[in-house]
């Protein structure tokens, strides 16, 4: 496929979780399969699910998966700015893979010019190296109260001259109002970059939708590039815990077939909960996210996952009564990263929460001290006789003085702890660990020795590429990528007043 080098496209959305990440991943896979040198990009990401690149940079996990769709090792340029909320008001700012500050919204706003320049520089490096860069927006470009400081949506589009496709989630309802309103709320210069729409998550008869598609094209002067159907189970590695509300359960009935029941505690600042995706992929295992002691009670394995606010989430565990259940529990418990830290005797934190020394749950012979420097790495080791490759992202440094070694952490009885994320994606290790859990829980686990989690992810990436190829006018998108924003587009009121955006270029 002939694509002129240096082309790009920004996929924006009418709302969060409209399907931007999925469509960018599908576009990347579709282009890569056709020999196009393509790379993903998200200027600014707000997510507690992150990943570590080969050179030790932290980026959003969705961009790491999008890089895999392109057949690439991810780099910091693919997500130069990552925000990791630690509370409702403050976030850690990660720039080119390294944490630089914890800020509130006003402090972040004071850095916007510096951060915009960093984002544009990263985009241009990718554009120089690859034929096409497929960019993912953040939230919605119609957040007009935030437009002046925007660097991920129209701010990026205007800075580097990108055409923009708006994705609308029809499953939420009101998709035509969302599409029209998103365009109309922007000023004329922003509107000039919006070339068309994709309707996502459609269920039903396409012929019933057709009149609405014709009307939105007539009202806006912009074409609909495709209607993508609703398909369950195609996405993993979601960006934030809001997506868990729509997360499908894996197949199998615990009551009917004796499947292992895994409960994952969903505390307020849960992070890197994608660790359990590999468990959910196993036949004979059911995985659910829980917020109460009652929901944990009959689990064969209770998982305390990562946390962006370990001390605060530990306090939440105590307030909900889940902490008492964990301490009394005789069945298997697995703590990963922040969850491992909660299982220790003490946590000393003058960095993340400023709480000083607080008692942990005391189930593992370890103590935690938070360091100002974040540990970022891609460790490798062995567990249950199987090779394990993982990644780690933490301020808390665990010092242990007992227990049976388990990866980098330890085990005491039916309680396991490790700082390593992604360990369960290693097939042999995962099945051996689940075998241990099953024996401890008095259940049976056979597993599927042919299941490859990496292979499953590749199959899902291919399915996303197929989804794009079958339901999007890819020829028209290629032309748009090559030619840039569509000339002569209609300006919708009230955008013609220019009131919603700044006068500058981005």
Automatic annotation (TrEMBL):
Residues 484-506 are annotated as: Disordered. The keyword Cell inner membrane does not apply. Gene3D superfamilies: 3.40.50.880, P-loop containing nucleotide triphosphate hydrolases. Pathway: Cofactor biosynthesis; adenosylcobalamin biosynthesis. One of its GO terms (molecular function) is catalytic activity. Residues 10-234 form the CobQ/CobB/MinD/ParA nucleotide binding domain. PROSITE patterns: GATASE_COBBQ, GATASE_TYPE_1. Keywords: Cobalamin biosynthesis, Glutamine amidotransferase. Residues 261-428 form the CobB/CobQ-like glutamine amidotransferase domain. The active site is at residues 337, 421. Coiled coil: none annotated. GO terms for biological process: cobalamin biosynthetic process. Transmembrane segments: none annotated. PANTHER family: COBYRIC ACID SYNTHASE (PTHR21343:SF1), DETHIOBIOTIN SYNTHETASE (PTHR21343). Belongs to the CobB/CobQ family. CobQ subfamily. Catalyzes amidations at positions B, D, E, and G on adenosylcobyrinic A,C-diamide. NH(2) groups are provided by glutamine, and one molecule of ATP is hydrogenolyzed for each amidation. This is Cobyric acid synthase. It comes from Microbispora catharanthi.
